[in-house]
Amino acid sequence: MKYLFGLLCLLMMSGCKIALEGTSIPAEMKTINVTVFENNAPLVVADLSSKFTEELKSRIRNQTRLSITTNDPQGVFSGNITGYGITPEAITDNRNPVAGANRLTIRINVKYTNNLNPKLSFEESFERFKVFKLTGSLQAAEAANRQDVIMQLTEDIFNKAFAQW
After folding, report:
1. pLDDT in tens, 49-74
2. Gap between the Cα atoms of 83 and 17, Å rounded
3. Fold of 28-162
4. Alpha carbon 72 to its chain's center
5. 146 in helix, strand or coil?
6. Are strands 122-132 and 75-91 parallel, antiparallel or unpaired?
7. Contact status, residue 82 vs residue 127, Cβ threshold 8 Å
8. pLDDT tens figures, 94-135
9. Given CB 3.0 to 4.6 Å as the disulfide criterion, which of 23, 89, 106, 109 pairs with 101?
């Protein structure tokens, strides 16, 4: 009986198909351009624009076969940083309000133009955040958590453009 149940489960599972397509970049697409994302957020962090732009380029270089170019690219990423902020997330004492955690939020407006297939182009706003406890200086914690949020944003943007989930 135990073997019959195992065989039945095996037969049922053999009819199931799970497929994750991964990236779906058209074979004819060879080049892409990533323009500098200007920082238009009310709170400006000096290196946020360059760090975000370079992280997006790095993700494309490492996870695709595309060449980054400015000369007649077949796809273009452009946009700007529209929001950046750190807000207290949890107050620990009502008499002496101190943030028990902080929330770092970054919002980016992205325009992706696919010159080979305009139907795959989009313009969308992406926002990510990270909640963190302050264990040392705010500047050190902010820098470390900023990198995590940038990585989450570039992953979202990359997936929207290249992974047809």
Report:
1. 999 999 999 999 999 999 999 999 99
2. 41
3. Double Stranded RNA Binding Domain (3.30.160)
4. 25
5. helix
6. unpaired
7. no
8. 676 666 788 999 999 999 999 999 999 999 999 999 998 877
9. 89
